[in-house]
Amino acid sequence: MFQRTVPVSFRSEIARGIFVVRFQSHEIASSAVAGQFVNIRCGDGCLPLLRRPMSISMIVGDEVELLFNVVGQGTRILAAKRPGDILDVLGPLGVPFGYRGDYSTAVIVAGGVGVAPFPFLTASLTHEGKKIVSFLGARTAAHLAPQHLENVQLATDDGTNGHHGTVVELLEGYLRRHQLPRPKIFGCGPTNMLKALSDFARKEGIDCELSLEGDMACGLGICQGCPVERTDGRKKYALVCVEGPTFNSKDIILR
Fold first, then answer.
1. 238 and which of 76, 126, 154, 243 could share a cystine (Cβ 3.0–4.6 Å)?
2. Domain range spanning residue 113?
């Protein structure tokens, strides 16, 4: 883990309200693993006070790419950054995806801006020689960001692109029509989507890893602000920032 002040190298709005920002850091870029995140101080003053956790979306040489939507003051400031502006970044943090292992087909399932960690994961899976099928859902076609994914199936809530309905419904229909050899699911998105995905994976007996969001003010487990309930009873709660953000869906309870 490193704390660095780093220059912004790129910024673009790639879909409605969805931004890509890159910063340059050899140390963070060379040590990051798919599924990890960084914690960013977005402003120069005291507001916003807390750092913002951001999934590492892609590594491009010595550059780290972030993908996010604007939901409040911190992300609004970050979306306004321009090349040459300076960021205070802490990372890489968290437990990465378990993308190596005894399975053949990676099934990526993303809801909205939950697509953020999957370009990096896709590159890692490709390096491992895994077959990839990706499922991406959003409210409308304007909110889809399928860049850098492979074999993409789309769903929109309003039917403006792809399946008219949820991304989990899209996945269910696809798997009824196609036999995927030894699949493993990787999911990220809103909690209700992840709960539906976890329930589906459990019903079908498919191994499933989820990347969770949380109120990760520190990113180090100090503030205790990002608990998720566990299933095994050894410990009632896990912290998303240090024991996640990736969890096997069998190990957590989503409500």
1. 243
2. 105-211
